[in-house]
Amino acid sequence: MRLVLVGPPGAGKGTQAQFIAAQFAIPKISTGDIFRANVSQGTELGVTAKKYMEAGDLVPDEVTNAMVRERLKEDDAVDGFLLDGFPRNQPQAETLNEILDEFGHQLDVVLELVVDDEEVIRRLSGRRTCHTCGHIWHVDFDPPNHPGICDHCGGELFQRDDDRPETVRHRIDVYAEQTAPLIAYYAEAGILVGIDATGPVDDVTERAIAALHPYG
Ligand code: AP5
Ligand code: MG
After folding, report:
1. What is the pLDDT of residues 64-77, one digit of tens each?
2. End-to-end distance of the chain based on CA atoms, in angstroms?
3. In this structure, what DSSP letter does residue 176 have?
4. Where are the beta strands (DSSP E) in the chain?
5. Is the dihedral angle over the CA atoms 112, 19, 31, 37 positive or is it negative?
6. In this predicted structure, what is the pLDDT of residue 24?
7. DSSP assigned state of 30
8. Which helix (H) or strand (E) holds 204?
9. 31-60 tens-digit pLDDT
10. Which residue has the CA at smallest separation from atom 11 of ligand 1?
11. How far is the CA of 84 from the centre of ligand 1 (A)?
């Protein structure tokens, strides 16, 4: 399955991506995670991406597109993938089409996670991520057994720099202006499926897997 997850910041893309990717045995490719790994390693890509991410702006397309092109060439992505956080604007969507064309492939489905802005703000203000394994927690909605420590691997949890309230508001605006128009674009292409992404994490996972079943 060649799948794109789309939805506003905090919709639960990363949370659901871990379960969906495991269910359909496809690699999860998160542009945000790749950028964050580069920032923490201090690579040239990380140095470039950092200032945009801290401001809640999109990293320039030429940088992002080149990174995704390289990642999709890797062996594990040849037979399918889940993209989390890409494409995020029309030029990126066109680049994805070009890359897939080169391989003689096409996108099977775009899954939209639907949540409102108030829920997004509640979710992002309490998000904690594991430094070691990347698992995503929430202090109220999905808390680990011991605050600050990952249940899965014992790693230390951190709060993302771009989850400050003013940056969150800007990321929501960037999503509305640049990414949301892709929903109509993929609906027109006949490959958009939307699900209600509110309620318990497990319920959302069930809805996602049921919606994707015809494509898997
Ligand atoms: P990115 O990392 O992709 O961030 P985002 O799209 O803003 O999305 P988030 O990761 O914030 O939210 P999510 O939907 O994954 O939610 P999560 O599962 O964590 O991008 C970051 C930055 O990188 C961008 O701003 C940009 O600068 C750059 N970048 C990335 N891709 C780019 C691209 N293509 N082009 C240019 N720049 C790019 O869940 C959030 C919280 O909610 C968690 O605490 C979770 O536990 C909780 N939660 C999840 N589901 C539920 C539920 N059902 N009920 C209650 N709580 C829930
Ligand atoms: Mg995410």
Report:
1. 999 999 999 999 99
2. 6
3. I
4. 2-6, 28-30, 81-84, 109-114, 127-130, 136-138, 157-158, 192-196
5. positive
6. 97
7. E
8. helix 201-212
9. 999 999 999 999 999 999 999 999 999 999
10. 9
11. 9
